[in-house]
Design brief:
Ppx/GppA phosphatase family-domain-containing protein, six-stranded mixed β-sheet, ATPase_NBD, GppA/Ppx_hydrolase, 15% strand, RTG2_C, alpha/beta, globular
Length: 616
Amino acid sequence: MSSFIDIITLDNFQHKMPRWDPDSANHLFALVDMGSNGIRFSISDLSPPRARLLPCIYRERAAISLFDALNKPPTSPNQQGGTAPMVFPPETIKLVAQTLARFRAIAVDDYGVPPSQVTVFATEAMRRAQNAVAMLTAINAEVPDLVVYVLAPQIETLFGSVGARSGFVDVKGLFLDLGGGSVQMTYMDTYAAKARGGHEEDKEESTEVGYEIAAALAGESLPFGAARLIRVLQDAGADVQAAETQKLHSGMGEAFETLRAQFPTLAATVAEARERDGPGIDIYLCGGGFRGYGSMLMHNSSVQPYPIPAIGSYAVSGDEFRRANHLLKVNAEFDGKIFGMSKRRRTQFPAIVAVVKALIAAVPRIRSVTFCAGGNREGALATMLPREVRESNPLDLVDAPPYSTPMPPLATAALPADILDTLLSAFPPITAGALNPLTSASVFNLHFGPIYIRQAWARAGEDADANASAALHDAVAGNPGCPGLTHVARAILGLTLCARWGAGVSPIDGDLYRGLRALIGATDPDALLWADYLGAATAALARVVPAWPKSRQAIDNSIRFRCTSESGKKLKILLDISISKTAARGLDPQDLVDLFKNVAKNRADTKVAVTVSQLG
């Protein structure tokens, strides 16, 4: 076991994690965070001079809840015994192993990340599972050279807080991270650290983390993550719920008092708030649970539709933050889609609110709350950087030359025409009286196919909803990559790229999205169908071939489209997606099918049916 599992602690993390070297020939780093609520994978380019920005060039999330996969635990999160063992079922072990194999292949084979710069770490669910060894053995069998690290609670606090801090120039306040299995609390004050001129240990080695280590040492990890706590609230009796809620409140209060005693600037802020009616304490929140609370606050903001479709750096006053009961009521009564909130997150929302209420009760006066995009992965990357890079002003680097493009040199890569040919094969044959993508306004006949294809893999490291928004705004702002496009061409390009990213349209973008569709629908309603269909087909291709294809043969060896149609009262488009056994490893076929779920959704005369098969 020692060859493929290790525990990362504050004492050894600098030696276990990959090291960043500004003179290295390759600055790509891949990270897999095996969290309790899902497994997140990202590739980041830490090339100078933009390393401080932690630019992400590819990201993907596997909806595998390791905590849910464990057999139902004892009712009390703190109870050590119980009748039901907490073990991963065999099907979950197999799926996780295949998923990590897929992620590793994307990193090393498709993007060229050195194997030594691929890191996998696990958190609360793996720490609790009684058969964690079986999981790790299966991973080792599937990917022998992949090391899985299990994070000690203090390291999880370190990575989470440093990741949240990385999104700002300077910070001073409490940092909390709410995951599926646990919640961490600590405190950071970069102003005080800079005023002291750093710590003595920093002088010996520039990669020491100074105030961040102090935060990790003083931080507390409580076993009240959203996935764990919701089970108590849904399944336990009233007495157990009351007892566990009390433990949560007392644990949060004790954690806060520990931090107050450890950090003089926090103690001074608390004293000022209590004794002299001072402004109060600033709080920074990260983790999926807290981001869900922020999304609900954004949904209920007085500014509607809220103009920025991203939760990162969204801030509210302490008074707004305290509206927990109102938000709980909205979550229970609102039937529509809330932007940024998945069905799973809304199911867990009562548990999230319980944690928020415990935080409100623990902190004497909250001035502001800021929701952070960064977390464990960003923190792990940031701690690889030397202090002078980590503490530099990120705003100075925004205009620095970015990582050029995920597309390899055209001399060795598939041409845009090759990729367009593959996508065209996803369309039904042209027959008399049938819908025709070559006569409707589309990427194919408006002659901007190469522009579209060059953007199909761009921004793969960004959030899909943010990419959908960017596609719409880039199309109308005159910067889609080529001047001189007509209004129709801009609308088609924007809508097709928006569909490629799932068309997760935020409220502020709704009017723009509807306006572009109205522009096309007024003259060519069929073009809307093909824009949605091509976007979904492109998303399927990019899911199977995650980076710009290295050759036409590489596409054909991984994925094939075959499409037919049946005429009648309703045109039925029958698409089969064949993928190779290698490409299918760790990939859920239903995910590919679901990419097309909204295509032709509002058309009474057309239906799209998608199947996935193995490429023979």
